[in-house]
Amino acid sequence: MLKSSLSTAAFLLPETTVNADGTGPTLDLGEGATGVLLTLGVSHVIEQESLLVSIHGSADGVEWSENPVVQFPQKFYTGVSAVFLNAGARSVRFLQARWKMDRWGRGTKTPMFRFYLVAESIGD
């Protein structure tokens, strides 16, 4: 799925409940994108689990970076955090979120997080 170009702010992933590793839709930053502020909001978790969210980039929307262009610190609790991506320096026009989850301890081994990702153009 390809979303429209980023003008000021757009959801890279609207608030979603996930129970497994996954990949979000593609966001087109538009031509000449420079700075992008990425905000991760975790609104619900269960105990003894972790979430690792990485952002992958592409110049053409077809071939994606093997390594993330930016990654959030691993999350264990609710909260909001942000990272900056210099898209212009990395020749990135398209972004895609990917996440990995883990659960340990008692009870079900199925993780559950509810989170969202927002991309905001800055410095254009």
Percentage of β-strand residues = over 45%
Helix content: under 10%
CATH topology: Jelly Rolls
What is the H-and-E element order?
A: EEEEEEEHEE
- Tally of DSSP β-strands: 9
List keywords for this structure.
single chain, 124 residues, Jelly Rolls, 5-stranded mixed beta sheet, 4-stranded antiparallel beta sheet, 9 strands, elongated
Q: Could you give the topology of this structure?
A:
Elements: E1 2-3, E2 9-18, E3 22-28, E4 35-45, E5 49-58, E6 70-71, E7 79-86, H1 87-90, E8 94-103, E9 113-122
Parallel strand pairs: 1-3
Antiparallel strand pairs: 2-9, 3-8, 4-7, 4-9, 5-6, 5-8
Describe this structure in words.
This protein is mainly beta. It has a single domain, classed as Sandwich (Jelly Rolls). 3% of the residues lie in helices and 56% in strands. It has 1 helix and 9 strands. The strands form 2 sheets. The chain has a 5-stranded mixed beta sheet with strand order 1-3-8-5-6, with no helix packed on it. It has a 4-stranded antiparallel beta sheet with strand order 2-9-4-7. The radius of gyration is 15 Å and the shape is elongated.
